[in-house]
Amino acid sequence: MPPVSDLVRDSRLKTRFSSKYTQHVFYVSGETPRQRKVRREERWERGESLGSGSFGTVWLEKLMAEQTNSKFRAVKEIRKVQRGSKAIDYSRELEAIAKFSHEKVNILTTTI
Q1: What region holds the Protein kinase domain (predicted)?
Q2: In the Cβ-directed half-sphere of 41, how many Cα atoms lie within 13 Å?
């Protein structure tokens, strides 16, 4: 397997999966430069399948929070399979996901 690009490595989230939700743990900067980073958790509930392709399935997920506004996102679940004796190179697929997950590109975020 080729080495992972900096973009993919830097975009990595500590994630836990269950059959009903996805949980992310990440750290955000404090309000002042002297304040430590603050640990945040998000839980996203899996909804319906939006479609599938050669690498996997795209799911609709809803943020499980006590806010009045609901947030949704599309999440791609990549199947990790091996074809014959060759390992599949996922680096281009992961790099595309990382690029389109960036805030500057993330135009599909919907708040209801």
Answers
A1: 44-112
A2: 6
Domain presence at residue 1: no
Beta partners for residue 82, in sequence order:
87
Confidence of residue 96 (pLDDT cuts 50, 70, 90): confident
Which residues span the domain enclosing 20? 6-78+88-111
- Please give the tally of structural domains in the chain: 1
Residue 10 placed within a domain: yes
Q: Which residue has the higher pLDDT, 105 or 47?
A: 47
Residue 70 lies in a domain: yes
Encoding tokens for residue 11? 């975009």
Full-model pTM: 0.66
Are residues 73 and 44 in contact, defined by beta-carbon separation less than 8 angstroms? yes
23 three-state secondary structure: strand
